[in-house]
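Project outcomes to date are best conveyed with an example. Our students and postdoctoral researchers have been running inverse folding experiments weekly, and each run begins with a structure described purely in C-alpha cells. The record below, which covers 317 residues, was selected by the lab manager from last quarter's runs and is presented without edits.
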C-alpha cells in the first residue's frame, strides 16, 4: 500500500484576532489524500474548508498538529523544505479573474510556475504553455491575449492550465466551478476528470454543490466548525449518511429518485461562531438528537471497518 500524497494529523489553524480571541478555523483535522482519488470537502460557508485546503498546501502555517506531503514532514518547513510540495501540488481558485493579473498576457501567467521553479528556458516554456492551452480546450494563440478578452469558463480553463504547468500529482480545487453556468461547469468537470484519468492527479475538491460532489468524488468529508464530522466513500455517505449534520445537508438537496427520498431533516439556526465554539459536540445547539452527554463531551471521529468515519455519540452507542 502506498503512503498518502498529503496527510494531516490533528491539524490546527487558529488565527489570533486580538489578545483574547482566537478563531479556530481548522481545529484538529486528521485526513489523507490518496493517489488518483477525488476527495471532496463539503460544509456550510465558514466551516473551514478553504482554510484546510490552503493549509494542506502549506499556504497557511499550521498552529498545531502535523502535515506530511509526499513523504516529508512539512509542518514547519521553510520555502526550501516546501520545494517538493510547491512543485507537485497546485491550486485552482473559485475566481480565476481575480487570480490572473489583468495587465499580463495569459501565456505569461500560465508560465509563471515554470519560471518560479526555474524549469526550462524561454522557448521551452512557450512550447509548454501552447501545449497546456491546447489541452484545456483553448488555442495556443490565446497566450498573447489578456484576461478581459475571455469568458468566465475560458478563464477557469486558463486557471487549470496554470495549475497543470508543473505536471502536479495533487490539485486543490477551491469552489472551482461554483461561479460558472451549469453547461460551462459540466465542461470544466469533464476536463478535470479526463486529466485525472490521463495523469493520475489526485483532487481535493472543495465545494458546496452536493450533486456535483456525488458525481465526481471517490470519498467525501463533511466539515463543521473546523472539524471533520463524517468521512466516507461517496456511495456510503450519500446512501447512508450517519451524522445528523450530514443528514440535514443532504436532505436539502432535491432528489429526483423517489426511492432515495428520506424524511427531511431541517438544519436549524446558524452555525456558531468559531470564536466561541459550543462545549461538547459543536453541533449540539442545532442537533435534534442532542442530550446531556452531547453538551458535555466532544465526540471523536471513529472509523468503522468499511472506512466510514463519524464523530457522533449516537452513532457509536
Ligand atoms: Fe447530535 Fe450528539 Fe451526535 Fe453531536 S454527538 S451530532 S449533538 S447526537
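After processing, the design step wrote out the following sequence:
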Amino acid at each position: 500500500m502506498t503512503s498518502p500524497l498529503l496527510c494531516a494529523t490533528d491539524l490546527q489553524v487558529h488565527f489570533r484576532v486580538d489578545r483574547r480571541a482566537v478563531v479556530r478555523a481548522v481545529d484538529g483535522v486528521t485526513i489523507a489524500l490518496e493517489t488518483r482519488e477525488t476527495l471532496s470537502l463539503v460544509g456550510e460557508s465558514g466551516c473551514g474548508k478553504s482554510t484546510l485546503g490552503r493549509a494542506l498546501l502549506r499556504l497557511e502555517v499550521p498552529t498545531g498538529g502535523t502535515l506530511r506531503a509526499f513523504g516529508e514532514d512539512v509542518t514547519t518547513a521553510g520555502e526550501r523544505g516546501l520545494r517538493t510540495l510547491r512543485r507537485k501540488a497546485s491550486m485552482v481558485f473559485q475566481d480565476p479573474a481575480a487570480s490572473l493579473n489583468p495587465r499580463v498576457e495569459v501565456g505569461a501567467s500560465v508560465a509563471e510556475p515554470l519560471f518560479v521553479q526555474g524549469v526550462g528556458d524561454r522557448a521551452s516554456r512557450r512550447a509548454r504553455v501552447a501545449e497546456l492551452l491546447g489541452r484545456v480546450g483553448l488555442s495556443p494563440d490565446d497566450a498573447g491575449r489578456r484576461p478581459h478578452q475571455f469568458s468566465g469558463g475560458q478563464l477557469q480553463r486558463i486557471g487549470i492550465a496554470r495549475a497543470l504547468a508543473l505536471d502536479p500529482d495533487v490539485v486543490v480545487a477551491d469552489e472551482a466551478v461554483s461561479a460558472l453556468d451549469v453547461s460551462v461547469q459540466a465542461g470544466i468537470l469533464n476536463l478535470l476528470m479526463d486529466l485525472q484519468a490521463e495523469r493520475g492527479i489526485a483532487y481535493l475538491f472543495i465545494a458546496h454543490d452536493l450533486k456535483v460532489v456525488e458525481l465526481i468524488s471517490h470519498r467525501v468529508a463533511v466539515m463543521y466548525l473546523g472539524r471533520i464530522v463524517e468521512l466516507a466513500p461517496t456511495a456510503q455517505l450519500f446512501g447512508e449518511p450517519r451524522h445528523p449534520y450530514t443528514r440535514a445537508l443532504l436532505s436539502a438537496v432535491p432528489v429526483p429518485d423517489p426511492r432515495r427520498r428520506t424524511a427531511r431533516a431541517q438544519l436549524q439556526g446558524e452555525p456558531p461562531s468559531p470564536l466561541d465554539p459550543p462545549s461538547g459536540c459543536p453541533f449540539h445547539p442545532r442537533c435534534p438528537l442532542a442530550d446531556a452527554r452531547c453538551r458535555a463531551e466532544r465526540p471523536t471521529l471513529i472509523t468503522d471497518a468499511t472506512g466510514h468515519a463519524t464523530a457522533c455519540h449516537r452513532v457509536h452507542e
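The chain has a mean pLDDT of 91. The chain is about 30% helix and 20% strand. The training component of this project remains on track.
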